[in-house]
User: Which sequence fits this backbone?
């Protein structure tokens, strides 16, 4: 019999200001009929968590303190509601962070990830920076026992990369990734498995440029020192790349990335832009070039998870260079400092 304590440690956004606090809070024991309680093994820091920590404009508009932060995790099922049937106590799980209503048109047509009434862990409800988390069974993913706890905790952002990349085929194509933050770095690792012809990465941060090269990018560009468009033209015999994977959320990266695409090419946009008013020349960059643009949010539920799970189970990915820091849960402040300074890849907190 699993003994569940009454109290737990959690990293909470206590006040509407910069920072976070390690606190002792109640374990969420009151389970609905389809709820599951998970004891967390590892939880990773996302860019969204950094926004909340810094208390930027987006966080101020979406977060209502006090609230437990975090949404990426792996752990063990320790209690289930009376109607739960997909998992059982003892299962090793991770979780989709998009919680769908199950009733709207999108949910009923295979598009739960863009549910009209979507809620997000750690944003609309208490999240995963804690020793225990309560989630509905519909979002849980059973991990293969062979997958490391640390690696299993980053499947949500890894799924972002997989969905962004494989919305169309990339085999044999020249690919440009703009932005080598944690998800961009995961994307580079994924692209190595996909048989791309040439992989070009654009990143202004020197730490992450070095990581991109170490992970396997063929060409790494510092767009603040040389023209990305010129480099792409030179590396592709003047044709431009076939695929743009935009991970940065930077307006110039978007513009230069689209300009670097060959006519008839494809762009997948995952980066989120701080400026709501992003202006591009639609005529020259998109319409007259017949560019296909995909807006990417989250992962396909659960098509993407099957792909990610298979890649990890069959050891097709090596995340050891992408996950640059594994910190004790209490050292979360160091993790946020590294994230803010850009001196890291993916950061995982272990419990």
Assistant:
């Amino acid at each position: 019999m699993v003994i569940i304590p009454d109290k737990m440690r959690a990293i909470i956004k206590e006040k509407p200001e910069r920072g976070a606090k390690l606190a002792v809070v109640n374990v969420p024991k009151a389970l609905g009929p389809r709820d599951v309680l998970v004891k967390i093994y590892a939880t990773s820091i996302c860019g969204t968590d950094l926004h909340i920590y810094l208390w930027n404009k987006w966080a101020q508009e979406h977060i209502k303190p006090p609230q437990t932060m975090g949404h990426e995790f792996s752990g063990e099922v320790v209690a289930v509601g009376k109607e739960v049937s997909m998992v059982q106590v003892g299962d090793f799980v991770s979780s989709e962070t998009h919680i769908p209503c199950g009733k709207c048109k999108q949910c009923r047509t295979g598009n739960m990830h863009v549910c009209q009434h979507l809620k997000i862990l750690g944003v609309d409800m208490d999240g995963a920076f804690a020793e225990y988390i309560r989630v509905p069974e519909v979002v849980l993913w059973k991990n293969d026992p062979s997958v490391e706890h640390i690696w299993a905790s980053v499947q949500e952002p890894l799924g972002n990369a997989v969905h962004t990349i494989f919305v169309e085929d990339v085999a044999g194509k020249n690919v440009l990734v703009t932005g080598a933050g944690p998800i961009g770095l995961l994307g580079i690792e994924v692209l190595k498995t996909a048989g791309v012809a040439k992989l070009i990465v654009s990143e202004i941060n020197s730490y992450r440029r070095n990581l991109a090269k170490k992970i396997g990018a063929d060409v790494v560009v510092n767009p603040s020192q040389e023209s990305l468009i010129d480099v792409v033209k030179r590396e592709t015999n003047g044709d431009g790349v076939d695929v743009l994977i935009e991970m940065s959320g930077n307006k110039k990266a978007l513009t230069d990335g689209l300009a670097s695409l060959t006519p008839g090419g494809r762009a997948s946009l995952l980066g989120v832009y701080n400026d709501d008013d992003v202006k591009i020349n639609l005529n020259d960059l998109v319409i007259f070039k017949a560019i296909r643009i995909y807006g990417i949010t989250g992962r396909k539920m659960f098509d993407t998870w099957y792909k990610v799970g298979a890649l990890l189970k069959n050891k097709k990915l090596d995340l050891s260079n992408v996950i640059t820091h594994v910190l004790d849960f209490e050292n979360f402040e160091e993790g946020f400092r590294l994230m803010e300074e850009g001196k890291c890849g993916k950061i995982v907190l272990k419990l």
In short: Residues 7-154+319-350 form a domain with the Quinone Oxidoreductase; Chain A, domain 1 fold (CATH 3.90.180.10).
